[in-house]
Design brief:
560 residues, alpha/beta, globular, four-stranded antiparallel beta sheet
């Protein structure tokens, strides 16, 4: 069977979705991994990864916007990471980094909507060699069916919030009725029920939530309608001194679509006479001034004809459309313009986003309850994380992509009874390139030499104080869909240095201790010459270490 490509096409990513050779081994110190154990005593792993769920929306991180009691429980009973960053802040590349332990330039998956190269090794193959049974259920978003898994049942692309298709290990597609977060959890517990109980397991539970277009479960519609959210302090950011920020197309005010994103006056039934008109609206809403590729144009046509709203059953449609038609009527009556319109869009965005997150946290609770009742909890590592951070109105934005704090950092909480002390806090800088080697270390599995990250297991168990104080970053996707200029850079405990390239070549420097919202670009300012030179030298060292040849060439030809 050819597992190279998922042959069934899926709605476009961000945009449409939302609406839208045996490897050699390195030697490792024994104090950097648990002793190898025999049989069922080795820990099981449940790795829960959501999409675009940012720490600003998680109460364990101090959020006042929403309560997430079940995510908070994992943090309370284990460890919470406060400086977990990503290496490339978009969906597919983040998951490719999880699988390979490599940066995007090494694993080849730099952009969304590409095909992950399954000829390269992935860390779950090492788990299999160590006697683990492995599975991934839910969102993977790699365009292929990677090796290293005994069982796959994944969403094609971003999947759909209601009645989504799933693709199994044999590349067979099946549609499952119901809300996707519930379905992913049910499929996960079903697999746990059927697994080989004589072997330890590694299970990835991949959730679609909280990806754009933020369609809540029916039971969560209106959950925040009585809440008026505070406008972020940077909502009306003028982007002074930040050229790329001035040119982006991801603002709530100008980019977020009333119809495609906020469900105002949605057409729930297909009308062949207006298909082209609908496509034009979605094209503008999703791509702005950018021209979709032929493949994206094809997926746009599929979305308009078979999209999320047209998947709803009659019963689902009655409830869902009833709620949003009421919202649409209220909006039309207001006749909003200017700031009032922008702030109305912000309020509706947060209400939908957080309502969608409700089901995510609730289903994490269901999975924790399953582990408790089945007796698995005491020997199962549980991780909750997201593929990257996200903007909830900061800088006036939604989406991710930037090396700035809100999109660079992603939540990460982990529980391992008897090994990780409850209430542990990790404040050192950890990257998602470190996830794979850490999971291998925790399971007593050797770390192959191709992995570029490092195990932070000692940080979780209190066994290491000397840890790196910087992380490397490289974002590529331009111009679609949001015209965020490609850039690479370095994030340390105090500073962020970034080199933007593509449409414009320039540098940015931030003191994130004094300016955690990345508002004041210090690059080129008097008094920062020494800091800048030191950071540039450190950045070049990282580029050489991780063999990012494209970035090295740009550094060598960089403007002063």
């Amino acid at each position: 069977m050819n597992r190279k490509t998922l042959f069934r096409s899926v709605p476009v990513a961000a945009a449409l979705a939302a609406l839208l050779a045996i490897p050699s081994y390195m030697s490792i110190q024994l104090d950097n991994r648990l002793p190898e154990q025999a049989g069922p005593q080795r820990p099981n792993v449940v790795f829960i990864i959501s999409d675009d769920h940012t720490s600003q929306a998680i109460s364990a991180y101090g959020s006042k916007l929403a309560r997430t009691p079940h995510i908070d429980r994992i943090a309370r009973e284990g460890a919470i990471l406060y400086n977990n960053v990503v290496a490339n802040s978009i969906c597919g590349p983040s998951r490719a980094t999880l699988l390979t332990g490599q940066y995007s330039h090494r694993n080849g998956y730099k952009f969304n909507e590409k095909v992950f190269d399954i000829t390269q090794p992935v860390f779950t193959e090492e788990l299999q060699k160590n006697g683990y049974q492995t599975a991934w259920i839910g969102k993977m978003h790699l365009g292929s069916l990677p090796h290293g898994f005994d069982y796959l049942n994944i969403l094609p692309g971003h999947g759909s919030y209601y009645n989504s298709d799933f693709v199994n290990s044999r590349n067979e597609t099946k549609r499952y009725p119901g809300y996707v977060t519930d379905v992913v959890t049910t499929l996960s517990t079903d697999w746990l029920d059927r697994r080989d109980t004589k072997k330890p397991f590694f299970l990835v539970v991949g959730h679609k939530a909280t990806h754009r277009e933020w369609m809540p479960a029916l039971e969560d519609l209106g959950a925040y309608d009585k809440v008026t959210f505070p406008i972020p302090a940077t909502f009306y950011d003028n982007y002074e001194g930040r050229l790329a920020a001035q040119k982006q197309e991801m603002s709530i005010d100008k980019t977020m679509s009333l119809m495609a994103d906020l469900k105002v006056n949605v057409a729930y039934e297909i009308n062949e006479a207006t298909v082209d008109q609908e496509k034009a609206k979605f094209r503008k809403a999703l791509y702005g001034s950018n021209q979709p590729t032929p493949e994206q144009e094809k997926q746009l046509d599929t979305y308009v004809r078979e999209g999320a709203y047209r998947r709803l059953s009659p019963e689902q449609k009655k409830v869902f459309s009833g709620y949003y038609q009421k919202i649409s009527r209220e909006f039309e009556e207001k006749k909003l313009t200017g700031k009032a319109l922008a702030e109305w869009k912000y309020q509706r965005y947060l209400k939908d986003y957080l309502s969608t997150a409700n089901s995510l946290d609730r289903n994490i609770g269901k999975l924790l309850d399953y582990l408790d009742k089945s007796g698995l909890a005491k020997n199962t590592i549980v991780v909750y994380t997201s593929d990257q951070g996200f903007y909830l109105g900061e800088h006036g934005w939604f989406d991710k992509r930037w090396i700035y704090e809100e999109s660079l950092k992603t939540p990460f909480v982990i529980r391992y009874p008897g090994v990780i002390k409850p209430g542990s806090q990790v404040r050192q800088i950890v990257s998602n390139v470190d996830w794979a080697p850490t999971l291998l270390s925790l399971t007593g599995t050797r770390v192959p030499a191709y992995i570029q990250g490092e195990s932070f297991m000692p940080l979780l168990t209190g066994g290491q104080k000397n840890w790196r104080n910087q992380a490397y970053y490289h974002y590529y996707e331009y111009p679609q869909p949001h015209r965020v200029s490609p850039h690479f850079g370095l994030r340390t405990n105090q500073y962020t240095l970034a080199r933007f390239y593509g449409p414009d070549d320039f540098w940015e420097l931030y003191d994130i201790q004094k300016d955690p919202q990345n508002l004041k670009n210090l690059y080129g300012q008097k008094g920062y010459e020494s800091v800048t030179a030191t950071l540039k030298a450190q950045l070049k060292e990282q580029i050489v270490r991780y063999k990012d040849e494209e970035a090295l060439k740009l550094m060598q030809a960089s403007p002063q």
